[in-house]
Write a structure and sequence with these properties.
alpha+beta; 4-stranded mixed beta sheet; about 55% helix
Length: about 290
């Protein structure tokens, strides 16, 4: 990858020699390759809508393995979404994408702070949130998505492993999905993922004792990122109300149309997941039943 530095901001982009799906290099404007239910895709779509930016949507249907097609792996060798193509330049990390989008002209207030000190603080906080990605996935795949539907077939994993350019992160992705297909998410793994989130939620709750939002009195990129995390854990069965201020903060963000629209599942999937959650209640296998949240 290539790092470009300007105005004390580092932006990570995908070098041209890693993008071998040639057509995207000619795309003008803002193009987002994404998946509706993807946590990282939601992190990017919310600021796009909040800032009122015009963007072209390119859904990548992970349910039909489109993320492991040669076409997509030619854009992002990792085989994951989202991917931003901005005037032919490919950006492949969600936190970097949010920073790129925040620098585009808009009438909305920026979500990143303007001072170098505050920006460094936000970037560090985003890195911490990003470090919990696998724990969030553990709880999503363990308690929201049915294992039989979410697991990937050996054929898909082999295809993912073999097609496209090699990438170390893709190898880790494939390894995780192989383990998940074989073992699911154990109660021990789930408990560890709950514990790390509970610790962070306690800290966020403390921050909200003296401010409206996580960075003070103005909505920031941290509110966007942590809203999606708290929503995902709440849907998994985590008792968010145990953090009273954080729960109230979450309810306020749910009043914003962009937050609701870009994190809402399609109605068919919502119905299927509701039925699955009812099944877990009946069988005593919800998050609070098998962990100590």
């Amino acid at each position: 990858r290539e790092e470009r530095t300007g105005d004390n901001v580092s932006i990570i982009i995908s070098p041209v020699d890693q993008v071998w799906t040639e057509e995207v290099k000619g795309w003008a404007g803002i193009h987002l390759l994404h998946f509706q239910s993807s946590y990282c895709s939601q992190k990017v779509r919310v600021p796009l809508e909040e800032k009122g930016l015009f963007w072209q949507s390119h859904p990548i249907d992970r349910a039909r393995d489109k993320h492991v097609s040669p076409w997509f792996l030619g854009i992002n060798p990792r085989g994951v979404v989202p991917v931003l193509v901005l005037d032919g330049v490919v950006h492949v990390e969600s936190n970097d994408i949010m920073e790129v989008l925040d620098g585009l002209p808009s009438e909305a207030e920026p979500f990143f702070p303007q001072s170098d000190v505050e920006r460094e603080r936000v970037v560090a906080a985003l890195a911490r949130e990003d470090a919990l990605h696998m724990d969030l996935r553990n709880l999503t795949m363990g308690f929201i998505m049915p294992h039989a539907l979410a697991r990937k077939s050996p054929k898909t994993l082999l295809r993912w492993e073999r097609e496209g350019r090699e990438d170390p992160k893709r190898a880790r992705e494939v390894a995780w999905w192989r383990d998940y297909a074989r073992d699911g998410i154990s109660a021990e793994t789930a408990q560890k993922s709950v514990d790390v989130h509970r610790e962070v939620f306690d800290e966020l709750d403390g921050l909200l004792a003296s401010s409206t939002w996580l960075m003070g009195e103005r909505l920031s990129v941290l509110d966007i990122s942590w809203f999606i995390t708290t929503l995902r854990l709440r849907n998994a069965g985590y008792p968010l109300e145990r953090h009273a201020r954080l729960a109230a903060w979450h309810r306020e963000l749910e009043k914003r149309p962009a937050f609701v629209a870009e994190t809402r599942e399609p109605w068919l999937l919502r119905t299927a997941l509701a039925i699955y959650q009812a099944y877990r209640r009946i069988t005593g296998s919800r998050l609070p039943d098998v962990t100590n949240p």
